[in-house]
Known about the structure:
This protein is an alpha+beta fold. It has helices spanning 2-51, 55-58, and strands at 62-66, 72-78, 81-86, 91-95, 103-107, 117-122, 128-133, 142-147. The chain is built from 2 helices and 8 strands. The protein has an 8-stranded antiparallel beta barrel with strand order 1-2-3-4-5-6-7-8. Strand 4 and strand 5 (103-107) form a beta hairpin. The chain is globular and about 30 Å long. The relative contact order is 0.12.
Amino acid sequence: MRKALTVTAALVTGAVLLTGCGGSGGDEAAKGGSAASSARAEESPRAEESSQPAPAEKGIDGTWRTVNDSPIKTLEITGTEVATTGELACAGTLEGVNTEKPRITLDCAKPDPGRTEGTLKVKSDGSAVSIAWDGPEWGGMIDTLRRN
């Protein structure tokens, strides 16, 4: 009988110890693990967002450098005013700045017939713009520029 009580006491003590250690420590670890996982999940999108500027935040104001073979070296946009440098260095205007298709018009002393008026398109992440210059029915020249 004494042996049975000793075995029973040992089992009960072992069960209490296992339940006590496993229960609260396991729960806290599980909670901490969930919280840590949630925190990491919340941080990931923010890190991605900060590395990709949104066009609305940056806008189109600034200096843009051409990436294709063009007589325009840079395009400076400040509000509704534009200026180009390079072989085709001149001033101009930008209409419809806050619209889906802003229009650019260059007023050059020595105009380039292929680059007088065009439609500006901003890349979704705000890192580049393209200008589809007006031209014949099949389309005109296209310049692609990146933020300087």
